[in-house]
Every structure is written in C-alpha cells, then in structure tokens.
C-alpha cells in the first residue's frame, strides 16, 4: 500500500513518542520463558507509580478544579478513544454504586459510542468532529469538567473534545503519557505521566493504560472525598443495590458509630437504607427527617451536618 503524506506525517509523529519507542533489548521476548516474560512485565509495571507520583501536583490541582465545578452542579466527563476511552467509561460507571452519584453526573465518552467498548470502530478516534457532536449531545455547560484521555496525547477525538469544551467555558484536563503533548497543551490542566516505551512496542494498554487508570482513580475518588461522599475512609454514600452492598452498608454504619446490630437495623429502616443518614441519626441522636434536613443544609457533608447537630 502506498504511503500518503498524512500517513508519513503520522509515522514521524509516532517515532517521536516515548510510548511508541522500540526496545531492542526485548526484541527476542518471544523466545524467553514464560516466567522471565512475567518478571520483565512486572518490572516494567513497577515503574508506573513513580511516573504518576511525579505529576501529583498537577493531579491535585485538577481535582480541586473539578470538585469546584461539581459542587455547583456540574458534571465530570471523560473523553477518549480505544483503551483510554474504555478506562474513562469504566471509571464513570463505577461512580454511581460507589458514591451514589446522580445519573449522568459522571460520564464516559468513547469514540465510536458503546460499540467501541468491545470492538474497534473504524476511524472514530481520528474525528475531532465526532467529539464535538458527543459533547453537544450532553448539552455541555461552563459548570462541567471534561477530561481528555490519550496515551499518545495526539488522538484527535480526545484533543477535539478538550478544545471544544474549553471554547464552551468548561473546565478542561488533558491526561497523556508523552511529554509535550497536544492534548495537555490544549487543556487548562495538563497532566503528562511519562511511562516510557512499552514491553510490546506501542501497546499502550500496558504501562500507559495502568497509569491512566491510576490517575482516573485519583480524579474521581479524591473529587468525591472533597464533595463529602465519604466519612473518613468510609463509603457513606454507597448505593446498596445488591446483597454484598447491603452487608457493606451495615458494616459501614457499624464502623462509623460502633452501634449494635439492632440499632443499625432501626437506623437504616428509619432512613430508607441511606447509610449517611443512618450514621447521623445514631451519632447525633436525631430522627430520620432531621438527619435528612441537616445533610441537605450541609450539601451532603456528614462532618458538617454532625457539627450543626451538635452546634
């Protein structure tokens, strides 16, 4: 197949990216024993936390900015293609059961739509226009925060999402795994976690994907802590949607209050199973409606509601 100028330009771009670099010392990895490959892979993975640690100030600044928008009713929106998009969808989908976020409060957009979660959608990642259309379908506002995710930092879908969101006044974060990326440059908050060449050349579902998962964990989890979705390190906004979570709810109330099983059951019954409300009824010795009012007045922050109750 004849190379076009576009293909040649893209190839030259890839050759400058550390995530795409060739590792000659691993050129015969397929001839190594399985245990030696596993050791090599584990050794590569062990370098990722240090790469993330180097970007903690940028990550923290992004979290504070996201939390400020979400405290005004804004949404957190991830946008990416391929592995990066799937990781964003994963993080978004775990927020409702973990933190009882509202439907649509945390959104994962993947180039090509839901079908792209399990199969490659031809050309989707190359379309900045598709990103703009996906964001417009959400009715993006200046209260929202958009996190573009791309290992290379050049994926048109992720860059296009950030550029469009910024033009609309939304907060923007660009998460990439190469230095000097277009994605980080386009965003108000650029986070470049440089993970280096992959064990398998260009396979950014490996170290780069691990780094992205770690950063997305931080962005969502610490934001939720800032929004009062935890009490200490307890998931007091957990949604008890199955037997395991119902058991966890009771354990959380027990850990937060030291109450016995009978007291816990009465508290949960009086608060329609709302863990945070049940804890407040027990610690502040108030009834369910009073707990609900105190939490509403405190924007859902349990510590603030406790302080008001003990006023």
Concise summary:
The chain has 311 residues and is an alpha/beta fold.
In which order are the strands of the major sheet placed?
2-1-3-4-5
Calculate the mean pLDDT score and round it: 92
Largest sheet: 5 strands, parallel
Per DSSP, what share of the residues sits in E-state strands of 2 or more residues?
Answer: 5-15%
How large is the count of helical segments?
A: 14
Secondary-structure content class: alpha/beta
Query: What are the low-pLDDT stretches, counting only 5+ consecutive residues below 50?
Result: none
Shape: globular
* Helix amount: 40-55%
Helices and strands, in N-to-C order? HHHHEHEHEHEHEHHHHHH
Total strands:
5
C-alpha Rg (nearest Å) = 22 Å
For the record, give the distance between the C-alpha atoms at the N and C termini, rounded to a whole number: 75 Å
Describe what this molecule looks like in 3D.
The chain is an alpha/beta fold and 311 residues long. It contains 14 helices and 5 strands. A 5-stranded parallel sheet has the order 2-1-3-4-5, with helices on both faces. Helix 11 packs across helix 12. The chain is globular and about 65 Å long.
């Amino acid at each position: 197949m004849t190379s076009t100028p576009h293909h040649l330009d893209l190839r030259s771009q890839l050759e400058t990216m550390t995530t795409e670099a060739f590792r000659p010392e691993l050129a015969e990895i397929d001839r190594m024993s399985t245990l030696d490959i596993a050791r090599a892979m584990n050794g590569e993975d062990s370098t990722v936390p240090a790469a993330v640690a180097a970007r903690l100030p940028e990550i923290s600044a992004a979290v504070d900015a996201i939390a400020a928008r979400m405290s005004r009713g804004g949404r957190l929106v991830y946008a990416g293609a391929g592995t990066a998009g799937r990781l964003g969808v994963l993080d978004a989908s775990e927020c409702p059961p973990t933190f009882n976020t509202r439907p649509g409060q945390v959104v994962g957009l993947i180039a090509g739509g839901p079908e792209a979660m399990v199969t490659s959608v031809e050309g989707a990642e190359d379309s900045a226009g598709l990103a703009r259309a996906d964001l417009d379908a959400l009715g993006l506002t200046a209260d929202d925060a958009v996190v573009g995710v791309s290992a290379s930092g050049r994926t048109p879908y992720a860059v296009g999402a950030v550029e469009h969101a910024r033009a609309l006044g939304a907060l923007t974060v660009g998460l990439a795994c190469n230095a000097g990326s277009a994605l980080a440059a386009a965003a108000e908050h650029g986070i470049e976690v440089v993970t280096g060449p992959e064990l398998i050349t260009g396979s950014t579902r490996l170290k780069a994907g691990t780094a992205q998962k770690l950063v997305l964990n931080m962005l969502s989890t610490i934001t939720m802590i800032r929004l009062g979705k935890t009490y200490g390190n307890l998931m007091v906004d957990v949604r008890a949607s199955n037997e395991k979570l119902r058991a966890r709810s009771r354990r959380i109330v027990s850990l937060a209050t030291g109450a016995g099983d009978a007291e816990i059951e009465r508290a949960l019954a009086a608060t329609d199973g709302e863990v945070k409300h049940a804890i407040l009824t027990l610690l502040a010795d108030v009834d369910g409606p009073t707990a609900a009012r105190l939490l509403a007045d405190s924007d859902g922050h349990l510590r603030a509601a406790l302080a008001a109750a003990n006023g």
